[in-house]
Amino acid sequence: MLFPLLQLTKRTEYGLIALTHLAGRRGSVVSVREIAEHYSVPRRLLAEVLKDLVRTGHVESQRGASGGYSLSRPAAQITLGEVVAAIEGRPSIASCESLEFLKSVSCEVEPRCPIKSPIQRIRSGLWSLLERTTLSDLADPSFELDPVSTTR
């Protein structure tokens, strides 16, 4: 999937908002209504995203009057990279990295392309940043990311 200017989709944004909210509730079961009202996000879309996250094993659901959602693992063990991949797949930032592009078109520039390797390194660095940032980090108001560091 190609993100315009590396922008996450609304589905991913709402998923990360919901997961961060769940992380702050530390094991409590939280309703879609609570999250949607707290952040003023569309309840229906939020419910769809949470169902997807149940299928991928990031969230557990409980039915019934007191039902809702909770994280399936500690927030420190869930990375942004795995959440993005679960909701919309691993991102590509150049059209030549897109599976749809590779299946449909051959690139005449590819054998001598001056940007393919640098773009792949940028993509790898961005992905590494997502994979080392956890929901706990997002939930921590004092969290500061060191984009150059290879460790947190």
Description:
By secondary structure, this protein is mainly alpha-helical. The chain is 48% helix and 5% strand. It has one domain: Arc Repressor Mutant, subunit A. The chain contains seven helices and two strands; from the N terminus they run H-H-H-E-E-H-H-H-H. It has a two-stranded antiparallel ribbon with strand order 1-2. Strand 1 (59-62) and strand 2 form a beta hairpin. The chain is elongated and about 60 Å long.
* Unreliable runs: 1-5, 98-104
Largest sheet report: 2 strands, antiparallel
Please report the number of helical segments: 7
CATH architecture: Orthogonal Bundle
Radius of gyration: 18 Å
Main β-sheet, spatial strand arrangement: 1-2
Give the secondary structure arrangement, pairings included.
Elements: H1 10-24, H2 32-39, H3 43-55, E1 59-62, E2 68-71, H4 80-88, H5 99-104, H6 116-132, H7 135-139
Antiparallel strand pairs: 1-2
Helix pairs in contact: 1-3, 1-4, 2-3
In short:
The protein contains seven helices and two strands. With 152 residues, the protein is mostly helical.
Throw out a few tags for this protein.
152 residues; mainly alpha; Arc Repressor Mutant, subunit A; two-stranded antiparallel sheet; 48% helix; disordered N terminus
